[in-house]
Fold this protein.
Amino acid sequence: TETLWKEISAWKFNENFLKQLIPMMQNRMETLGDLIEPCLFFFQREVSYNSQDLVPKDRSIEDIPGIIQTVMWALDELTIWSANEIEKAVHRVIQFWDWKIREVTGVLFVAIMGQHIGPPLYQSMHILGIDLCRRRLMNALDASGGLGKKKLTKLEKSWQNPQT
C-alpha cells in the first residue's frame, strides 16, 4: 500500500499537480466535490466520447478530420508549450478554416477532455502536455474517420501555403 501511494503521489496526486488545477476550477465549484468530475480527464490516458460529440452544430463529421489535423500541425510548430502559445496556434486554425472560435474549441474540448465543457481549454492542454494532447487528437482524428492520402496532401499544401 505504501509503495503504491508513493507511486501515485509521484505521478499526479500531489500538491504541485493539484495546485495547477485549483486556480482553473475555483470559480466553477460550489462544493469541493465539484473539482473531481470535470477534472477526471487529467488522470486518464484516454477519454471516451461518441464521434458525433466532436461535431459542432451546423457542421458534419466530414469537417472534423481537417480541423484536427491542422490543430496538430499548428501545435507541432510550437517551440514553447504554454497556454498562450497553444491559444495562438488554435487561432491560426480558426483563421485558416474561417470557423467560429466556439466551433473549433468545441471540437478540442471533446477530443482533449471527452466533454463539452470543463476547465479552461488552453491551460488544461498545457498541464496535460504535448504528448498526451497529441495522443488524444490522434484518437479524435481516427474517431472522425481520418483523412485519405489525397485529402491529406491537398490540405498540407494549403496549410503550408495559405495564399494559394
